[in-house]
Amino acid sequence: MKLQDYVRNKPILETDRLLLRPLKYDDAADLKEWLGDKSLYQYWGKRPGKSDLNPELLFQKKERPTKSFHWGIVHKKDDKVIGEMWVYLIENDRMAKVAFRLSPIYQGNGLMIEALTEVVIFCFEKTELQRLWSDVHVLNIASYRTLEKTGFKREGHIRDGKMVNTYCDYYLYGMTKADYSDNIDRRLSVFEVSSVCSVSIDAFCF
């Protein structure tokens, strides 16, 4: 499929613990529980806006058809919207930026790695995108480790540059479709080696 195919019908992505789906008005209560948390904006590049403090405002304007994606991250067990994921700033249907944030209560459990991995798979297998990128404050260790564990490579260090509305030092991360394919090949190789080792050990035990 092409990005154009998703302009009006956004996909729902699913992992073991999460659903990624478009946000709806009924999600405002869940969002309000964590979007106002000041810790989320320490490295976000701007202070919380009106819609961050009052999530119901997000749904007052009718959304225009777009190739960009904005998912709410739903924790299936708790049935709550606990985060957000964006794929946006799409250029020539070839390159896009990713951004994400997660409720502080749910951080530290690998949930964002799980969500971002699914988004990367979708982008490279279900659209024509060839490159994903992101920027992250140099002190935002949790976020850049999430990117690295998902397969993104650090491509640059911008000193005293502008990130959203803040001047700071930040890293640039990127992943190409070729990187993604290489990552899959390496994982398959590791799996094959593990399988061979397992068979050998089992045979030895007999």
Largest sheet: 8 strands, mixed
Helix-strand pattern, N to C?
Answer: EEHHEEEHEHEEH
- Helix proportion range: 25-40%
What's the multimeric state?
single chain
Count of helices?
Answer: 5
Determine the strand fraction and express it as a percent band.
Answer: 25-35%
Strand order within the widest beta sheet = 1-2-3-4-5-6-8-7
End-to-end Cα distance, whole Å, is: 49 Å
List segments where confidence is low: pLDDT < 50 over at least 5 consecutive residues.
Answer: 193-206
Which class of secondary structure composition applies to the elements? alpha+beta
Explain what you see:
There is one protein chain. With 206 residues, the protein is of the alpha+beta class. 31% of the residues lie in helices and 31% in strands. It has an 8-stranded mixed beta sheet.
Summarize the structure.
The protein is α+β, with helices and mostly antiparallel strands and 206 residues long.
SSE diagram, text form:
Elements: E1 13-14, E2 18-22, H1 28-32, H2 50-53, E3 69-75, E4 80-91, E5 95-102, H3 111-126, E6 131-137, H4 141-149, E7 153-163, E8 166-176, H5 177-205
Parallel strand pairs: 5-6
Antiparallel strand pairs: 1-2, 2-3, 3-4, 4-5, 6-8, 7-8
